[in-house]
User: Fold this.
Amino acid sequence: MAEIINGKVVSASVREEIAREVALFREEHGVAPGLAVIIVGEDPASQVYVRNKHKGCTEVGMYSLQIPMPAETTEEELLEKIGELNADDSIHGILVQLPLPKHINEDRVINSILPEKDVDAFHPTNVGKIMLGKYDLLPCTPAGIMELLSFYNVDIRGKECVVLGRSNIVGKPMSQLLLAKDGTVTVCHSKTVDLASVTRRADILVVAIGRAGFVTADMIKPGAVVIDVGINRLDNGKLMGDVDYDGVLDKVSMITPVPGGVGPMTITMLLKNTLTAAKKKFSDK
Ligand code: NDP
Assistant:
């Protein structure tokens, strides 16, 4: 019988630890770790994410600054706001909610955030540090997956790890983190030939492609640990991952459900990054 990896339980446990550390930090430094979240426009999904980030921050005792900007904000105005936050000592983490309106260049915006305040870890400096294995800030979704694997004592060393998907925010950093833990890592994508023969080798399979139920039982090695990052909204309104959960359940040793697996970890890791950024600021002084 497969063990279900419960992201809500792990997330709650990590947040408890963060709250304890935030309390100590406040005592020691007289300020709270501060996160600023900029949202441009009124995309409903983004608004939900930003509200949840705010709630997460305040629940662990952090300072949360939400900055809503109208959809017609120019790139210059946004860069100016980021410049102000870069210079603001009460703000240790800055996050610009993506996607941005089409007229704003995302790369320029990401590059304008000070790397030490880049709690999404999307800045090229932070991406490079992950390649070098010398990182402080990790992208939240892959970092959350590493927490889940650690919490459930999944041994990565020497294991065949297959990452399905090569996006900059999930697949690529995920492969680096597994490699850093001595996994033998293969990355697959839409051009991979005979995908099933590769995924069937995986002791640990991480799937992040955005295709509901794409990974079926015939693509899985018996006893594999399966991490499903996908979040797909079905016509009936329900959420489904990239893995055919019911179809593979009898074959895997552990699996993350959708919802309730990887999802709950993402904001938790954002909080962890904000705490890390705040601590680093004081330790670097
Ligand atoms: P992207 O769309 O940026 O990347 C998708 C990747 O999947 C690409 O590398 C693409 O290959 C690959 N891919 C697409 N179709 C296939 C296919 N048929 N066979 C093999 N590979 C394929 O997605 P993201 O990484 O941003 O997100 C992936 C999923 O994870 C989404 O459902 C998203 O909603 C979810 N997500 C969940 C998060 C969470 O907190 N739980 C956070 C972030 C994302 P190629 O490069 O060749 O095009």
